[in-house]
Amino acid sequence: MSCDLHVLILAGGSGERFWPCSRRARPKQLLRLFSGKTMLEETIGRLGDAVPPERVFILTNREQEAAVREACPGVPPGNIVAEPAKRDTAPAVALGVGLVLRRDPQAVMAVLPADHRIRDAAAFRRDLLAGARAAAETGALLTIGIRPTWACPGFGYIEQGDRINSEEPAIHEVKCFREKPDPATAESFIRQGNFRWNAGMFIWSVAAITGELGRQAPELAAFVERMRTTDDMPALLASDFPKLPKISVDYAVMEKAARVLELEAGFDWDDVGSWVAVAKYLPQHEAGNTANGPLAVQDATGNIVFSPGGKQVALVGVNDLIVIDTPDALLVCHRSEAENIKKLVTRMPEELQ
Question: What are phi and psi of 178, to 5 degrees?
């Protein structure tokens, strides 16, 4: 099955939540948060030998294209495509479907975000290939579900139906998708036990997804067909892609598809959506402080420090701060305000955004 599997990696983003390390031209997936590799490089590396580089496609945008190409020298240059406009995930998926369709109309493809933290690469590959087999055999659209560790109101949820297999990983029918719930509803989902987080990872055959696009999103299906037949791909993208409807793939396709299955992930997963989430993976210092480099503290607790240059940082008499140091900017923020960092970015000089 691995010989038929193509992977589309979505590598856009605005670079706001991880300011000042991230910028518009260098969002989260281009940061080295956990190792000497960017998160995008780690995403490609997790594929191992399950998917050869010539069957890996990366979608980014024009602001980030140069940095993505630099980070991915092993991916064929023609497989890295910059969207000419931001149109949300459904048009991005349609573009990826068109790219794969031109190569192999019989292919199975997976859609993966570029900025998730997954440490068990072997389990990830096992589940990816199992999902590809299920997609090929059933003709259904598959989504990968994550067993919740807490009642997070910031994620979409998948309600599981009947299980269709006896081996691992478990695959269930999807009863419905639930959008980001309020905290009380999220708690009820956890109590019921058959809800999983929607991680935004999908697997399907090209035939299945083109069929669903034709049924539910004819404008996107027509775009895919034009991609299949065009002799001038750059001109088609420049003229047609910006006109596509701005809509997510969940709304456009997944929530109304004829049959959707959910593969329950057997690997660890984190979308690391803020500096507070990153802190879980940084070296732990005394008094609940975390830092990626040398740290000295005096009467300081619960602080998060990240300095890409490895600068010595000292904290005295402060608690629960986020301190991010870069060569051209310094952020000091209470950790309870991490979600508001993106609001601050627009107040920065243009060259620092």
Answer: -120, 130
Q: Are 186 and 153 in contact (CB under 8 A)?
A: yes
Q: What is the DSSP track for 224-275?
A: HHHHHH-S-HHHHHHHHGGGS----HHHHTGGG-S-EEEEEP-S--B---SH
195-205 vs 108-113, strand pairing mode: antiparallel
Instruction: For residue 69, give the DSSP letter.
Output: H
What end-to-end distance do the CA atoms of the chain give, in Å? 43
Q: Is 106 exposed, middle or buried (0-12, 13-18, 19+ CB in 10 A)?
A: exposed
Number of separate helices (H) and strands (E) present in the chain? 11, 15
Q: Cα separation of 286 and 268, whole Å?
A: 26
Q: Which fold has domain 2-141+197-259?
A: Spore Coat Polysaccharide Biosynthesis Protein SpsA; Chain A (3.90.550)
**In this structure, which amino acid lies at residue 27?**
P
**pLDDT tens digits for range 107-132:** 999 999 999 999 999 999 999 999 99
**27: cis peptide before it, omega within 30°?**
no
Beta strands in 53-156 (DSSP E): 56-61, 80-83, 108-113, 141-146
Nearest-angstrom CA–CA distance, 1 and 264: 19
Residue 293 CA from chain centroid, whole number: 27
State the average pLDDT over residues 239-262: 96
What's the pTM value of the predicted model, to 2 decimals? 0.94
The two structure tokens encoding residue 282: 């940084």
Determine the Cα–Cα distance for residues 208 and 210; give it in Å rounded to an integer.
6
d(CA 4, CA 135): 12
- Give the pLDDT confidence score for residue 347 in this predicted structure: 92
Domain segments of the chain: what residues?
2-141+197-259, 275-352
How is residue 191 written in tokens?
């109590």
CA angle 232, 3, 262 (to 5 degrees): 95
**What's the burial of 302, exposed, middle or buried (CB within 10 Å: 0-12/13-18/19+)?**
middle
Q: Calculate ∠ Cα 27-28-34, nearest 5°.
A: 145
